[in-house]
């Protein structure tokens, strides 16, 4: 199969893989710039960038990039680094294929309606679970798979999946709590639950009283979403989406304080130069 066709198929089916492209060469090398191969997470490949020790190292790096979910660059000297007789240098760019990530949203109310379009834009494969068929409507959720059934039964049937994301935003506090108790012992990438701080505190008290290990319920992101002071469904949706971006990018950076920003250069009179948008055209 052609490398690009294989990459498109991997994205369509959700199979985890990374595209490896030679972006620079010097001296004697087995392949020229532009050579490509696709590396799957099981170390199988389509195409080649030259074989041998170079390709072996690139495959290892590709599997690491798949796990990290981030692109990487790899530069090697074929003789000094790998003991190959070619004597040249090669640089490759490794780009993980971003397939849609599974996301189950429990609840089809206002917050779900506002959040699902953002989840779709962030490449989540969204499933909505709500037994209220008057709310779980295709026209309300055109980018989601709908299941109008008992959320608790659906949650119990979920398999362990280290890539799965589960968002609990139902209309009933007790249902939220029961869902979380079912979901917490399962393997997943992320669990979020809507609620006030008081609601979440009460839940944690109940979990402790029930003997749930603290390490287990600390898996739960609650109240879900970055603390943006969100109040409306649209604002809550933005906060949830922002948290998921931070989780995906493994970022934990506070906002940059104004004092850390570079100040405009001062003119010859000691006064700060006006910003570009206030300067007259030259």
Describe the structure.
The structure is a single chain. The chain is an alpha/beta fold and 282 residues long. The chain has 2 domains: 3-96, no CATH class; 101-249, Rossmann fold (3-Layer(aba) Sandwich), CATH 3.40.50. Helix content is 33%, strand content 21%. The chain is built from 8 helices and 11 strands. The strands form 2 sheets. The chain has a 6-stranded parallel β-sheet with strand order 8-7-6-9-10-11, with helices on both faces. Strands 3-2-1-5-4 form a 5-stranded antiparallel β-sheet, sandwiched between helices. A hairpin with a 4-residue loop joins strand 2 and strand 3. Helix 3 (110-121) runs parallel beside helix 8 and helix 4 (151-157) runs parallel beside helix 5. Mean pLDDT is 85; it is low at 275-279.
Number of helices: 8
Q: For this structure, what is the CATH class of the largest domain? A: Alpha Beta
What do the pLDDT scores average to? 85
Please give the largest β-sheet.
Answer: 6 strands, parallel
Series of secondary-structure elements, N-terminal to C-terminal: HEEEHEEEHEEHEHEHHEH
Quickly give the structural class: alpha/beta
CATH superfamily of the largest domain: NAD(P)-binding Rossmann-like Domain
The tally of domains stands at 2
Q: Tell me the Rg in angstroms.
A: 25 Å
Question: Any idea what the shape is?
Answer: elongated
Ranges where pLDDT stays below 50 over 5 or more residues in a row are: 275-279
Task: Give the name of the CATH architecture of the largest domain.
Answer: 3-Layer(aba) Sandwich
Tell me the helix content.
25-40%
């Amino acid at each position: 199969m052609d490398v690009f066709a294989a990459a498109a198929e991997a994205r369509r089916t959700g199979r985890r893989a990374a595209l490896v492209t030679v972006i620079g060469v010097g001296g004697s090398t087995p392949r020229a710039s532009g050579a490509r191969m696709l590396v799957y997470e099981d170390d199988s490949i389509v195409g080649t960038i030259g074989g041998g020790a170079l390709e072996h190292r690139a495959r290892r790096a590709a599997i690491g990039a798949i796990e990290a979910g981030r692109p990487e660059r790899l530069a090697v000297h074929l003789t000094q680094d790998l003991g190959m007789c070619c004597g040249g240098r090669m640089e490759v760019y490794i780009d993980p294929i971003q397939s849609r990530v599974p996301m189950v949203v429990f609840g089809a109310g206002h917050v779900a309606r506002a959040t699902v379009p953002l989840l779709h834009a962030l490449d989540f494969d969204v499933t909505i679970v709500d037994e209220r068929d008057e709310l779980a409507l295709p026209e309300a959720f055109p980018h989601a798979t709908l299941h109008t059934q008992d959320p608790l039964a659906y949650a119990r049937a979920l398999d362990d999946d280290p890539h799965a994301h589960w968002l609990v935003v139902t209309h009933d506090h007790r249902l939220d709590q029961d869902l979380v108790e079912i979901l917490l012992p399962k393997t997943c990438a992320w669990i979020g639950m809507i609620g006030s701080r008081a609601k979440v505190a009460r839940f944690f008290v109940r979990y402790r009283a029930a003997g749930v290990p603290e390490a287990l319920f600390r898996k739960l992101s609650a109240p879900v979403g970055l603390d943006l002071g969100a109040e409306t469904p649209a604002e809550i949706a933005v906060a949830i989406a922002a948290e998921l971006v931070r989780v995906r990018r493994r970022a934990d950076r506070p906002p940059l304080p104004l004092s850390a920003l570079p100040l405009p250069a001062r003119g010859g009179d000691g006064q700060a130069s006006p910003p570009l948008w206030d300067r007259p055209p030259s």
